[in-house]
Amino acid sequence: MESFHFERAAPRAARGMRVNALVGVVASGNLEVLLERKGPIDRCTVQVSTASHGFEPLWQAVIDDFVERRAAGGLHISINDGGARPDTVSLRLAQGVRLMETHADDAASGAPAQSLTWFEASARQRIQALVDTGTFNEYVGPAERESSQHLGIFNLPSQFDDGIVIGSASIEGRSVLVAAQEGRFMGGAFGEVHGAKLTGLLRAAQAMKRDVVIAFDTGGVRLQEANAGELAIAEIMRALVQARESGIRVIGLVGGRAGCYGGGGLIAGCCSTLIVSEQGRISVSGPEVIETNKGVEEFDSRDRALVWRTMGGKHRYLIGGADLYAADDAHAFRAAATVALGHPARLSLDVLQAEQARLDMRLKRFGDCSDARDIWHALGLSNPDAISDLPPDAFLEQAASHRENADDAR
User: Fold this and answer.
1) In Å, how far are 179, 221, 236, 287 from 199, measured between CA atoms?
2) How would DSSP label each residue in 30-79?
3) How far apart are the first and last CA of the chain?
4) Cα→Cα distances 45→90, 268, 297, 337, Å
5) Could you give the CA distance from residue 166 to residue 197 in angstroms, rounded to a whole number?
6) Which residues contact 262 (CB under 8 A, 6 or more apart)?
7) Which of the residues 42, 108, 136, 166 has an alpha carbon 20 to 30 A from that of 287?
């Protein structure tokens, strides 16, 4: 990693009343910018951390142009860079200044989440769309800089929130705790800090007697923090089960770019209610992992149709692996979460035994099937080949009388 510090005289003071603002995500060709109102109003300081070495003169030119063109006086700007081009840096800096000029309750960055699909939205946009306007209070936010201490060893940039956003809010007036993973940062993977934030939220839920809603978007555990990530998965699962035992509902939402794989798939399986869209994928082992270990004859990870019908939302809903099915839309996920918060909060030995019995029956019924379409045919669907192309309403109409029902188990 390489770090630069710039301090420049600023011709114009930053406007607005926001204390801080965050834009962007650390990803390939992108960067994260945290703006804080600190220091003299006639100065602007910029701290850059980047994995791309040898570009200090270019950074200096971009920063000089930014301070000259924008009202940046009194700002301290921190940047985590994933190899962004100069035009992307300029764009993110401009977005940050505009955000600082808005009211604190206004929408965060970019387009409103309601205009985006759930699949395309960022973690912060998903939370914004999910909760009642103006009610979200973030815990351990970016300004606290609780990010991974391990990634720099591998010359990888960190992210200020470590790829997960947590806090309290309300949904339809009901107080809840919420979490959303950022799938664009390291595939939403679990590391030490990322896992600790979710574990802490689940423990807080038990103490505060509040239900929890988690928007999953993860490929599993970070290889760079493998041991810490594996421990985090175990701690999260224990905290989740303990919360459910005390009567807390834990609602999982799956519909992001990274899907819900590895340890994320295990955590999702522990939720009291799981909501999925067609774009959501749930599995312990990802397509590439299966192919690497068993060969392409077992599973061709390049066959996207195969991946989606095996691990995707429609299949998971049909076999009872997910409880509710939503369209790929922020409003639909909010509506489904509201329904799920009204479901009974149950976790007991009887519930676990019923779930195990259902899994045993599933294996007996579908154990000889070699493809998801064979399972759909065994469920009684008259035209299994057409299921993948059905829009949400038509799919739900067919699924209503044919899917396995997990309600008794959960």
Assistant:
1) 11, 15, 5, 28
2) -EEEEEEE-S-TTEEEEEEEESS-S-HHHHHHHHHHHHHHS--BTEEEEE
3) 47
4) 15, 42, 56, 42
5) 7
6) 218, 219, 220, 221, 284, 285, 286
7) 166
Query: CATH 3.90.226.10 occupies which residues in the chain?
Result: 113-399
Tokens of 59: 């950074």
CB 84 within 8 A of CB 31: yes
Write out the two tokens for 36.
């804080």
Closest to 236 in 3D by CA, of 210, 262, 259: 262
Q: What is the pLDDT along the chain (410 residues), one digit of tens a residue?
A: 899 999 999 999 999 989 999 999 999 899 999 999 998 999 999 999 999 999 999 999 999 999 999 999 999 999 999 999 999 999 999 999 999 998 755 544 444 444 579 999 999 999 999 999 999 999 999 999 999 999 989 999 999 999 999 999 999 999 999 999 999 999 999 999 999 999 999 999 999 999 999 999 999 999 999 899 999 999 999 999 999 999 999 999 999 999 999 999 999 999 999 999 999 999 999 999 999 999 999 999 999 999 999 999 999 999 999 999 999 999 999 999 999 999 988 888 998 999 899 999 999 999 999 999 999 999 999 899 999 999 999 999 999 999 986 554 44
From CA 366, how far away is CA 242, in angstroms rounded?
32
Q: Could you say which of 3.30.230, 3.10.350, 3.30.9, 2.30.30 is the CATH number of the domain covering 2-100?
A: 3.30.230
Distance of alpha carbon 217 from alpha carbon 282, whole angstroms: 10
Residue for token pair 């806090």 = 167
Q: Write down the H helix ranges in 187-286.
A: 192-208, 226-245, 263-269
Please, where are the H alpha helices in 209-269?
226-245, 263-269
CATH superfamily to which 113-399 belongs: 2-enoyl-CoA Hydratase; Chain A, domain 1 (3.90.226.10)
* pTM of the complete model: 0.92
Token duo for residue 167? 């806090």
Please count the CA atoms within 13 angstroms of the CA of 254 that sit on its side-chain side.
35
Which residue in this structure is represented by tokens 């604190």? 104
Which contiguous run of DSSP H or E holds residue 100?
helix 86-100
Tokens of residue 352, six digits:
């676990």
